Fold this protein.
Amino acid sequence: MPDVGLREWFAAGRAIAKGHLLRYEPGAGLTSRFERELGEAVGAQHVLAVNSGTSALVAALAAAGIGPGDEVLVPAYTWMATAAAPVQVGAVPVLVDIDETLTMDPEDIRAKITPYTRAIIPVHMVNAPCDMDAIMSIAREHGLIVIEDACQSVGVPYKDRYCGAIGDLGAYSFNKMKNMNIGEGGAVLTNDERYFIRARSYHDLGSLVRQHGDRLNEPEFVGMNMKVTEIDGAMLSVQLKKVIPMLRRMQKRRAVLAEILSGSQEFRVTPHNDPGSAVSLSILAPTREKAIELTGRRGVHNRLRDSSKHLYTNWEPILQKRTFHPKMNPWAWAKRDITYTPDMCARTLDILDRTCIVTLGLRYPTPLMALIARKLSGAN
């Protein structure tokens, strides 16, 4: 992720010096400027800055009218927030296996659709895009809403578009560990004006008085407070200028290392849904034991089975259907019994057991990283 440094510091200082920290205050405008810049950069007509990626997912679901009795398909490999967001609007998550690309398997999506399915949340994990062509085709065939969780892939291209701006709605995160980093933050993206107006209303307690004149006859409804400050908007404009150049460097570095690693007899380079624009690199070992051994080598960052709340088996509140109050439990409102078991997505567990992330080493010269890759692949 890009560093936070002097430019962000100066941007925050200018926001403070203006004296307008609330984004809807007269004289403010830094957050609105960032939203326009981000929309132009990724091809989204409407962008709404919110206080986290989780909030972005919840606001997107609320905007789309997802609620009690609805089922939402989510991958078994993602940060737990993806599965928790439907619960926050009264819906229930249904878990879908991933394939070797580390993203939702379109065939398992088809298998998990029921008459009660309302939405799909494909997640572009570790900067690896989902097969959005297949997912959008399935969604249109079944009349489902697609809400992209692009929190881990801000600025990442998929063919001729950008992750997060392909589905009906998208969610970005600007958490410390993401491609754009201001510590915490997020954004909702959409090309549908009604969804945008509903998301904007939801993120501001249902208020329609803060420069929100374009209501499209939408009635007021109770929402949350997910707003950001002008300091956030100012820093995000700086970060946005860094992310695309960073990803281009990653793309070039990945191509060099992937070519070297593809010659290994010990593992395979993980398949990718858009190899020409790939910015992430992982390898797939033949066995769990081999993956553990590879993790000890230089250049291998981690084994994905050891990824804490990114794996469904560690989502205790979801697996146990536990919310803050028993009468506010979406599983009680579901139209059928939804069950979860630790082995329900066995293919996901197998793939993650054998997958390791390879570092691209952007802080080091490409020849050095190529040398490390050759040693890792067993090349002379």
Remarks:
- Residues 44 and 165 are 6 Å apart (CA to CA).
- The longest strand covers residues 46-50.
- The mean pLDDT is 93.
